[in-house]
Amino acid sequence: MADEIKNVFISHIHEDDAGLADLKGICEKNGLEVKDSSINSAKPNAAKDPDYIKTQILAPQIQWASVVVVYVTPETKTSEWVNWEIEYAAKLGKRIVGVWEQGAKDCELPEALDKLHDAVVGWHGESIVDAITGKSNGSYSCDGELREYRPPKRYSC
Fold it and tell me: Which CATH number fits domain 4-149: 1.10.10.10, 3.40.50.450, 1.20.1070.10, 3.40.50.2300?
C-alpha cells in the first residue's frame, strides 16, 4: 500500500488516455496512491453542451481533487478544455502540477499551465510525487533542466 493518498484530477486530452495508467503506476511505485477523478474513455460522458460539461461534470471533479495534474504531450497545448480546467483549478486555489509525458520532446506547455503552475516535472517518479505532494515547486523542461523556481503559494481558508 502507498504511504500517502492524494485526490487528483488529471487534465489531459482523450488521445492521451493510455498514459494515465502509467502516470498513476509511477506514483504508486514511489509511495503515492492517486485517486483520480478525471474524465477519460473508461469514464466517458455523453454530454454535448460545453457549459453543462464545465459546470456539471468537470467542475465538481476538480472541486473534489486537492491537486490538478496536467499530463503534458505535444497536443496538450492547443486544448481549450485543458486550459479551462487549469484556469478553473487556479480560481479554486488548487495545486497545479504539470508532468511531461515519458520521452516528451519539443512540445510547449499549455498557456494556462505556463502561467499558473506550482510545479512542472519530467517523467521521474520521485519528482512527480514531490510535485504532487508540494515538496517541490520547480519548473523543469522535458529534458530535466530547471526553468524556474516558484515559492509555494499561500492558501487561505
Answer: 3.40.50.450
